[in-house]
Amino acid sequence: MTRKLLLAALLAAVLPAAALAQTSQSTGGPVATAWGPRIGFASGPDQLLMGAQLELGEIAPDVTIIPNVEIGVGDHTTTFSISGDAHYHFRVQNSPWRPYVGAGLTFIHYSFDVPPGFDDSETDLGASLIGGAIVPTRSGSRFFTELHLGLGDIHDFKLMVGWNFKM
Questions:
Q1: Where are the domains of the chain?
Q2: What is the DSSP string of the chain?
Q3: Pick the CATH number of 2-166 from 3.40.50.880, 3.90.79.10, 2.40.160.20, 2.40.30.10
Q4: Taking 90 as the threshold, does the pLDDT of residue 13 lie above it?
Q5: Residue 21 pLDDT grade (very low, low, confident, very high; cuts 50, 70, 90)
Q6: Distance of CA 80 to CAs 57, 64, 73, 106, Å?
Q7: What is the pTM of this model?
Q8: How far apart are CA 24 and CA 125, in angstroms?
Q9: Peptide bond into 16 cis (omega under 30)
Q10: What pLDDT does residue 6 have?
Q11: pLDDT-derived band of residue 31, with 50, 70 and 90 as boundaries?
Q12: Is 70 exceeded by the pLDDT of residue 126?
């Protein structure tokens, strides 16, 4: 039952962002250019993370906005987070790799494993500094890897990888 609720929450977070991106195209605003899964691990608490993201391009030259959701398990804690990241992509001559730096805000809900009959959870807000790189694949999608350094009551750091499929 918990897995079904988490999946429903994941879809509820990603689908409105996709609809917003599609309607923004007609108004000259951000356009959804890609979407995809993301997976990685985090510390503080130590967790395996799984999630999805949407890439909104054309914000400014070389700038993208990346709303994403993640579910984390491990360290006697389950987390659910919703983030909004902004990335600035650098151009590297003679290389398909595009390194980027950025920052983001994260709302995170912690649910701690406690003895039966007790409910221990909290919701916090934090920020992160981001560094990563993205590279196109032969199929036209893009592979990425990134590191997040947490500021505030979120994961201390995260190492993520994923694929963005062109829309």
A1: 2-166
A2: -HHHHHHHHHHHHHHHHHHHHHHHHHHTS-EEEEEEEEEEEEETTTEEEEEEEEEEEEEETTEEEEEEEEEEEETTEEEEEEEEEEEEEPP-TT-S-EEEEEEEEEEEEEEE---TT--EEEEEEEEEEEEEEEEE-TTS-EEEEEEEEEEESS-SEEEEEEEEEE-
A3: 2.40.160.20
A4: no
A5: very low
A6: 25, 23, 9, 10
A7: 0.79
A8: 27
A9: no
A10: 47
A11: confident
A12: yes
Question: Strands 47-60 and 63-74: what pairing?
Answer: antiparallel
The amino acid that residue 95 corresponds to is S
Q: What is the pLDDT of residue 163?
A: 95
Residue identified by tokens 């400014």 is: 60
